[in-house]
Amino acid sequence: MTIQISPDKMPTRPRIVIPASEHARLLALADAAEKRTPAVAEFLADELTRADVVKDEEFDPNIVRMGSRVTYVDEVTGRTRTITLVYPDAADIDQNRISILTPIGAALIGLSPGQSITWPLPDGRVGSLKVVEVSNDQE
User: Which of 8, 66, 133, 136 has a C-alpha 20 to 30 A away from that of 98?
Assistant: First the structure.
């Protein structure tokens, strides 16, 4: 089944929270990726712009951040997947290490369990996922 929604008809996105120590680095990363992956870079920059930025010591460990291990459900396919959200240089699909510069990576940042997000895909379809579990056992 293909779901198509025009960008101006997209559902309201959920509140997201980003730790201050990651916010500036992620904005710079989105800016640097603008020429290589413009759609993802724009989506990530938009997410970061609307995010609530909090001091690291006030950041809730149940929220997706860089290095988080995240279990989510793809609400279009019904598939459940567990990944680790990483910077591009640490990405490895075979080890379920997903870059923040992918549509799913950019969608996951700042979400907490129970939250869903929907975003437009380049082919006009819509991506949708729901966070099930977040682990932030930072090494």
Answer: 8
